[in-house]
Amino acid sequence: MLLKRLSAHHLTEQDVTPEAVYQDRRLILKGLGLGAATLAFPTQAGVLDLFSGDKPAPVATRALNIHAAARPEGLILTPEEKATTHNNFYELGTDKGDPARNGHYLKPEPWTLKVEGEVAKPFTLDVWDLINKSTLEERIYRLRCVEAWSMVLPWSGIALADLIRRAEPTSRAKFVAFETLYDPEQLPGQASRSLGGGIDYPYVEGLRLDEAMHPLSFLAMGLYGKALPAQNGAPIRLVVPWKYGFKSIKSIVSIRLVEEMPPTTWNLLAPNEYGFYANVNPAVDHPRWSQASERFIGEGGIFGAKRQPTLPFNGYADEVASLYQGMDLRKWY
Ligand SMILES: Nc1nc2c(c(=O)[nH]1)N[C@H]1C(S)=C(S)[C@@H](COP(=O)(O)O)O[C@H]1N2
Ligand SMILES: [Mo]
């Protein structure tokens, strides 16, 4: 795993079938009295059980005032303890369990978020003031990581467009640039190549202005009706459900309206593997693995979790495909 951390590449095949899964499979197969020869079967079946031992306790964060969403039919929520212990937040460590373990370093309160750049009315938002004074909207979204695993998560927050509109973008604003907090005391991976993967921090992301203004683009301050745990991007993070998970930047301190397409962290690291757009697309494979299907992280009994087809735009094509009319999505991956 150390090699992965020190390389410029996001992922290895090991991430697509995480080490933890192999470990668990070995234990489970041992328990069933099956030998190593049977390993080939669960690997292909996409069987997933991240927790063979004691389940971790749910994360204690405060309950929020939310307007709950109806539970959609046909979508199964990922269990809270999996959503909060299987994370990508490299500033808190590159292994899936690191962000939950190291989350105590991050102090999400107080927190200010700036909306600035090409706007008539830049402002600084007191995030906890917003959380405490609002009824947040709940949205149940699919999350598809570029590593070919997926979850279904109940976020609470506000539409990104609401915040951007308040700042009154000028006619020069064409893109939106986002930045994660830079503070190695709170995000120790920023000061340690071995913990943080050798990325140039702060983590940065971006959207075209019309993508940012789309009603599905969301700023989440809660998960499962409670304030975001550190590992999920406390206290405020972006959620763009039709794009690969790395676009959904965590623990943001700045939203800047800009004229030019802004740099984005994974594109800077490996431009041939991660584009600016990063729309979920089962027809365009990652150079090192297929994107046609994904492992859904659900209840995850040994025969429960399954590999399922990945949907164009992660299932949101009806809402967002028109944003990309006339674009060659192989070129603009
Ligand atoms: N600042 C920051 N934001 C980040 C990441 C990161 O490493 N640092 N990882 C991204 C990736 S790859 C994914 S899949 C999602 C995971 O969000 P979750 O842990 O809440 O499921 O966060 C994204 N946002
Ligand atoms: Mo991801």
Summarize this structure briefly.
The chain has twelve helices and 13 strands. With 333 residues, it is an alpha+beta fold.
Helix content: 10-25%
Number of strands: 13
Under the CATH scheme, which architecture would be assigned? Alpha-Beta Complex
Elements, N to C (H/E): HHHHEHHEEHEEHEHEHEEEEHEEH
What overall geometry do the principal axes of the alpha carbons give?
globular
Q: Number of helical segments?
A: 12
- Beta-sheet strand percentage? 15-25%
Number of domains: 1
CATH class: Alpha Beta
- Give the end-to-end Cα distance, rounded to a whole number of Å: 27 Å
Mean pLDDT over the residues: 86
The poorly predicted ranges are 1-53
CATH topology: Sulfite Oxidase, Chain A, domain 2
SSE-based structural type: alpha+beta
From the alpha-carbon coordinates, what is the Rg to the nearest angstrom? Answer: 19 Å
Question: Which small molecules are bound?
Answer: the ligand Nc1nc2c(c(=O)[nH]1)N[C@H]1C(S)=C(S)[C@@H](COP(=O)(O)O)O[C@H]1N2, molybdenum atom
Sheet of most strands: 8 strands, mixed
CATH-assigned homologous superfamily: Oxidoreductase, molybdopterin-binding domain
Question: How are the SSEs ordered, and which strands pair?
Answer:
Blueprint: H1 2-6, H2 13-16, H3 19-31, H4 40-45, E1 66-67, H5 80-83, H6 98-102, E2 112-117, E3 123-126, H7 127-133, E4 136-144, E5 149-159, H8 160-167, E6 175-180, H9 193-196, E7 204-208, H10 209-212, E8 218-223, E9 226-227, E10 237-239, E11 252-258, H11 265-269, E12 293-296, E13 307-309, H12 317-320
Parallel strand pairs: 1-4, 2-11, 5-12
Antiparallel strand pairs: 2-3, 4-5, 5-8, 6-7, 6-11, 8-9, 8-10, 12-13
The structure holds ligand MTE and molybdenum atom.
